[in-house]
Amino acid sequence: MQFVEPSREVLAETLLAAGPGAETLCAGWRTQELAAHLYLREHSPKVGLGLLIRPWHKVSDKATADLAATAGTPEGFARLVDKFRAGPPKLSPLAIRAVDHIANLTEFFVHTEDIRRATDRWAPRALDADYSEALWAELVKRAAILYRSVDLGVVLVNPAGPRHVAKRAPVSVAIIGEPGELLMHANGRIGHSLVSFEGRPDAVALLQTAPVGR
To answer: Most exposed among 108, 157, 158, 163, judged by the fewest C-beta atoms under 10 Å?
Structure first.
């Protein structure tokens, strides 16, 4: 099933509901910076490369800040969100469904939650079972990279049954949660993910301060 298009729509609606100037879980970014990032990563090759290549980070950051500066009013913000909602250019690799799935399935879920969970009062969404399975499948593919800087073994446990060893080490911690919650934890949203842990207390404490997702 294709989940990216409806996820894009949910993310766009979440941005509009929050409006410009709202906080997000992305450090230093309000909703207009996040919207600018989402649009530029699909429309600007320079920005796309800047997200991947460290020496080009400044190019990406400046382009994001410049575009965000045009979206500080409700009208400007709505125009930017509508451009993001329209999707990538027809000649972009992201217009290919398989590439779009790889690049955007988890990106859109995490950033939707970055907006929703940046407030004091939030609750997890009830996700379609097939959507949760798709998020789990993507998490399994990326888990080794996302937990590479953690000085522990990490086992991801889905209450539906599957388990995945993200990293092996003499001392391990099991992280237990629904796929969306595990995905948020794996992407560094440690204080905003509804997960539980099993392991030695000192190992669990170490995981709480580890550089997850970096």
So the answer is: 163
In this structure, is residue 179 part of a structural domain?
Answer: yes
- Residue 176 φ then ψ, to 5°: -115, 130
Q: What is the DSSP letter of 93?
A: G
64: Cβ contacts below 8 Å, ≥ 6 apart = 33, 36, 37, 40, 47
| Segment 116-126, tens digit of pLDDT | 999 989 999 99
Residue 31: give the domain boundaries. Answer: 4-116
**88 and 14 in a common domain:** yes
In terms of C-beta density within 10 A (0-12 exposed, 13-18 middle, 19 or more buried), how is residue 126 classed?
exposed
Q: How many domains does one find in the chain?
A: 2
pTM over 0.85: yes
Cα 32 from Cα 67, distance rounded (Å): 8
Question: Which region holds residue 199: left if phi is over 0, alpha if psi is between -120 and 50, else beta?
Answer: left
Task: Determine, yes or no, domain membership for 125.
Answer: no
Nearest to 207 by CA among 146, 129, 127, 121: 146
State both tokens at 101.
């799935």
